[in-house]
Amino acid sequence: MAAPPALGIVATLKDAFRTVPGIVGGGMLVALLAMVVIVPIYAPFDVVSTWGDVSAWVDNPRLAGPEWSDIFVPGTLPRTITIQPEDFRKTKVVSETFGITTIVLRSTFDFSADYFPGELTFRLFTTFKDITPLVSVQLERPDGETVELLRTTPENQAPTANSYPFSQTITVPETLRNIRAWATSNFNATDVAFPKPEVTLFAEGGEDMLDPHRARLMRGEYGIRVIAVAFDSEDNIDGRFLVFGRVFGLAGTDHLRRDLLTGILWGAPVALAFGTVAALIVILTQTVFGAISGWYGGRTDEAVQRASDFFLIIPILPILILISIFYRPSIWAILFVVVAFSLVGGTSKVIRSIVLQVKQEQYVESATSYGASKIRILFKHIFPRVMPYTFALIALAVPAYIFLEASLAFLGLGDPVLPTWGSLLGTAYNNNAMFNGFWWWIALPSAGIIFATVAFALLGYSFDKVLNPRLREQ
Amino acid sequence: MAILELEHLNFHYRTLRGAVRAVDDISFEVEKGHTLAIVGESGCGKTSTAAAILRLLPKNVARYDGIVRLDGKNVMELSDEEFRKTVRWQGISMVFQGAMNALNPTARVGKQVAEPLQIHFDAEKEEAMARASESLRSVGLPEYVERSYPHELSGGMKQRVVIAMALILRPGLVILDEPTSALDVMTQTNIINLLKRLKKEEELSYIFITHDLALASELADEVGIMYAGQIREIGPSEYVYPSPKHPYTKALLKSVPILRSSESPISIPGVPPDLIESPFACRFHPRCSVSFEECGWSAQEFADILERLRASGEDGGVRWGEAEVEDDLTLVLKPEDGMDPVTYRKALEEAFHEQEESTRAFKAVTKVEVRDGGVAVTLHEATTPYMIGEAHRAACLLLRKGGEKDG
Ligand SMILES: Nc1ncnc2c1ncn2[C@@H]1O[C@H](COP(=O)(O)OP(=O)(O)OP(=O)(O)O)[C@@H](O)[C@H]1O
Ligand code: SF4
Ligand SMILES: [Mg+2]
Q1: What is the CATH number of the domain that holds A366?
Q2: Rounded to the nearest whole angstrom, what is the distance from the C-alpha of residue B11 to the centroid of ligand 3?
Q3: Are residues A43 and A89 in the same domain?
Q4: Ligand 2 atom having least distance to the Cα of B289
Q5: What is the reported pLDDT for B52?
């Protein structure tokens, strides 16, 4: 091994950021940091507690791809259409004679996408005195047809919503009956075993309208009408109607309707924090021990080296898995365990070998001769020489720790509450994202991991280029 | 008054082959304000002597004892910590061989020159830096050097930096280990002139280590000639240069090339000796052109010489048979192809006598006698030379009272 090149930290950093991998890796790192900055802007709420709260995401489509998946299919995929309570025109007629109050909500929306919507949901907010009002929800179609989706007596008082989903998997049984009856009688449609309300309701009238595979989409202006008969003049109703799209945001949603972009953006600081903090602490302590080992020699050296051997053969992953199974530790507890098992190790050995060379150099003897103490030489003359290597080793260790965290999270052993790239992948895997074609759920968190690791690998490589004379270009 | 006195200083390294006796029982003194030049071939132990004085011991030290007196006080008795605090750089500083590498490549020059001040006097940073720049100015360096990194400087400049660093604590004695050997002649002259000036201005004493006798004459008040870990001649340069006493010094002086002289320099035959198994008695005897029977020949060495001569076909008509070493001073030679031992003995005796000028080991032969069908050769007993003389001393057996040889 040639003598270490004589460069200070600053000079090394400058040189490293002048190489092509240095520029690219540095740029990628800046992009990652940008993600960290964007999180609080994009998700200005407590991401960690919201992530575990299913009710926070109910207005998002379930398992929707990213909006830009349009580019893979002809036409446009439907976006979610939401009709908020304030979008409804409300008319309230109080009839003194009969003691009933009629409330009508009506609104229209334009459906112009090239595919059927994902599912429909109506949420009803009611306030009533003694007797629950009688509510009918109807869909008006561009062809002039009106279908009653539901006739119900909502039990929940506002602000708790009465939720009525209409989709193949979960539908009010009455709705399906209504739709079937309406389609067969009005359009002579052929019945099928599993009709989809969101298809039939948006299909052109005809024989095939009940068959999800053959129904043809009808674009145009749809209307939603809610008629309530209440028994007190103070009673009131409001509604929210959701025509869920098939795509959502930049990164789509998961099975719990959570916005994956929030998870992915949030994954960046977690990965960066875990990776860099672990790499920094581990590599720096190992550097210190390695330098002490090489510089003091003798028994100290022997002790540090044997300890390094010991920690090198201890398999950290199985230990972490065991600890995770029993304690469900937070990410910082995991970090602590990682650091505790890596106080000495491979880096101590690398740094020791560099120190053994630096030790032979004349200026170290010179420093001894002018009376510098051993510890002073260690700090003033030895560390500055090994620091550039330490930087390179840190940069190269960051991806390893990002991977470690991701692997644990993937196995479901990571932090139980934080959304991280690894845990996103883990849930995707457990929900068979691969077989169901939910590609975004796998591809985007993986892209995050790859992006971060490549960024640091490139940085590490750029250091290597500067520090390793054989790789140095002219 | 002597600023530094060494008495019986020993400093040996431990190696797998055995102890390297790099500093072997060395005694000398350096007068205040004087320069002692230590001259010797590469590997003779010059740097090791300096290291022994400054107690710069490697891990593999095998022996380290003797007396080192600085200003009359034996510093060998100090603990490592006291030694570091009081002797290093304050009492004795050193300019290391190969100044190119004596500077930390990652730190600015000014900071490095100031470091000894900070270590020994806890000096404030600004004050230390001010002193450092003063010191750099005094060795004739421009101001910007202070802020430069070592790799931005030329060899000569670095040498000056290292000298500035050695002087910053105003020590009484500076050891200069080949301070000019990697420099061109002009730069060399500049540095020597600088050293002369500083010596006068700062009232310094120098130990000037070099392999170059001519260069040593520029600066030296005294010269010590070192050979195989020992000082072999030492004295004021005005005596040593014109009238060297030791054959090795004479040979060294003859090997110095003289400008515009018709005489070509004469090199010393043979190689510098091994410091692990060094030659017996006078260590110079295998290469000495005036050596004689007492100088240290052993039976084994004698047998090796015969073997070498036979291999190169220089046996002068006599077939040296197989040599068998009997003891330190006796070996038995067997005649080849059934030659009569009596005739063989005679032939050998004549050959030894005839060739004793060219192969000086033959001078050591005292007895050649027939024994057990072979011829036993007995060598003269050796005497170890010791330093002879007062101000100008040398260690050669020829210097004993009574002139050329005893008896
Ligand atoms: N640390 C060491 N361990 C073992 N042997 C050593 C060590 N340092 C020096 N030596 C040996 O001691 C002998 C004297 O070395 P030293 O460096 O003192 O020679 P020198 O006279 O300064 O030579 P040069 O003119 O080449 O600098 C050499 O034979 C060398 O190989
Ligand atoms: S003692 Fe004198 S003469 Fe004999 S070998 Fe040594 S230097 Fe030569
Ligand atoms: Mg030397």
Answers
A1: 1.10.3720
A2: 14
A3: no
A4: 8
A5: 96
**Last-in-domain residue among A214, A244, A274:** A244
Q: Please indicate, yes or no, whether residues A306 and A353 belong to a single structural domain of this protein.
A: yes
Q: Do A371 and B119 touch (CB under 8 A)?
A: yes
- Claim to verify: residue A321 and residue A468 sit in the same structural domain: yes
Given a cut of 70, the residues of chain B with pLDDT beneath it are: 259-261, 314-321, 402-407
Per the structure block, which two tokens stand in for B309?
């001569």
- Single-letter amino acid code for the residue at A220: G
pTM for the whole structure:
0.77
A27 and A169 part of one domain? no
How do the domains of chain B map onto residue ranges? 2-254, 297-379
CA distance A418 to A403: 16
Domain that holds residue A122: 78-244
d(CA A152, CA A163): 11
Going by the DSSP 8-state scheme, the letter that residue A420 receives in this structure is -
Q: What pLDDT score does A2 carry?
A: 42
Assign A471 a pLDDT band (cuts: 50, 70, 90). low
Handedness of CA A241, A243, A249, A255 (dihedral sign): positive
CA distance A167 to A118: 8
CATH class, domain B297-379, is: alpha beta
Distance, CA of B93 to CA of A366 (rounded, Å)? 10
Domain count, chain A: 2
Q: For residue B107, what is the nearest residue in chain A, using CA coordinates? A: A8
Residue of B nearest to A386 (CA): B106
Residue A159 preceded by cis peptide, ω within 30? yes
pLDDT digits (tens, 9 = 90+) for B236-280: 999 999 999 999 999 999 888 776 667 777 888 888 888 998 888
The beta strands (E) that lie in B71-141 are given as 73-74, 92-95
CATH number of domain containing A153: 2.60.120
Between CA B192 and CA B173 the distance in angstroms is: 16
Rounded to whole angstroms, the Cα distance separating B42 from B40 reads 7
**Is A442 part of a structural domain of the chain?**
yes
Which residues have CB less than 5 Å away from ligand 3 (the ion)? B 47, 97
Q: What is the pLDDT of residue A137?
A: 93
CA distance A364 to chain B (A): 8
List of residues 6+ apart from A303 with CB closer than 8 A: none
Ligand 2 site, CB within 6 A: B 246-247, 282, 284-285, 288, 290-291, 295, 385, 396-398
Query: Model confidence over A96-133: pLDDT tens digits?
Result: 787 889 999 999 999 999 999 988 999 999 988 888 89
CA A327, A332, A335, A341 torsion: positive or negative?
Answer: negative
> For domain B2-254, which architecture applies?
3-Layer(aba) Sandwich (3.40)
What is the average pLDDT score of chain A? 89
- Say whether both A332 and A210 belong to one domain: no
Q: Are residues A305 and A351 in the same domain?
A: yes
Can you tell me the mean pLDDT for A325-329?
84
Residue A187 lies in a domain: yes
The answer as to whether A460 is a domain residue is yes
Domain boundary among A185, A219, A244: A244
Nearest CA among B236, B272, B238 for reference residue B252? B272
Residue B64's H or E segment, with its range, is strand B61-70
Whole-angstrom distance, CA of residue B251 vs CA of residue B289: 9
Tell whether A448 is covered by a domain: yes
The rounded distance, in Å, linking the Cα atoms of A347 and A355 is: 12
Q: Are residues A229 and A279 in the same domain?
A: no
Same domain, A262 and A207: no
Q: Is the ipTM of this complex over 0.95?
A: no
Q: Which residue of A has its CA nearest to B106?
A: A8
Does the CB of A10 have a partner CB in chain B at under 8 Å?
no
**Which residues does B contribute to its contact with A (CB < 8 Å)?**
54, 56, 59, 84-85, 88-90, 93-94, 96-98, 101-107, 115-116, 119-120, 149-151, 162, 165, 169
Confidence band (pLDDT; 50, 70, 90) for A473? very low
